[in-house]
Write a structure and sequence with these properties.
CBS_dom_sf, four-stranded mixed beta sheet, single chain, CBS_dom, 139 residues, Diverse_CBS-Domain, alpha/beta
């Protein structure tokens, strides 16, 4: 099973000039916990992410809700996998980097989708695949 097979829905994106308040509204409206920040001129080119946690941290720091997402999110060094990689790669990166969402890219570097921890635990087939691929071998 590949990451692209799990990331079935199109990603919800936002441009870097939008505010934290706008990001929160988009997340609530779409019932997602992560937005992919994309270039204004190229909406398929990801340049960062903003998560619910980023918004909470921004509010906790008493930053105004008019702070732009490029200041509140993670820019350029976000965690990603490729659509043709096995799902185990996504699970391992999510564990390694302690994130609940991971961006899925195609091999051209364009945004393909997002996988959430909920996606991983939501289907029996995925859990079986992860258990099989992650289990230590006995020799």
């Amino acid at each position: 099973m590949t990451c692209g097979e799990i990331a079935k829905k199109p990603p919800i994106t936002i441009t870097p000039d939008k505010t934290v308040e706008e990001a929160a509204a988009i997340m609530a409206e779409n019932r997602v916990g992560l937005l992919v920040i994309v270039e204004r001129e190229n909406p398929k080119k990801p340049i960062g992410v903003i998560s619910e946690r980023d918004i909470i941290r921004t509010i906790a720091k008493k930053a105004p809700l008019t702070t732009t997402v490029d200041k509140a999110g993670t820019m350029h060094n976000f965690v990603y996998v490729y659509a043709d990689e096995p799902i185990i790669v996504a699970a391992k990166k999510m564990k390694q980097f302690q994130v609940r969402h991971i961006v899925v890219l195609d091999r051209n570097g364009e945004v393909y989708g997002v996988i959430s921890i909920r996606d991983l635990i939501g289907e029996r087939q995925i859990l079986e695949t992860l258990a099989r691929d992650w289990a230590p071998t006995i020799e």
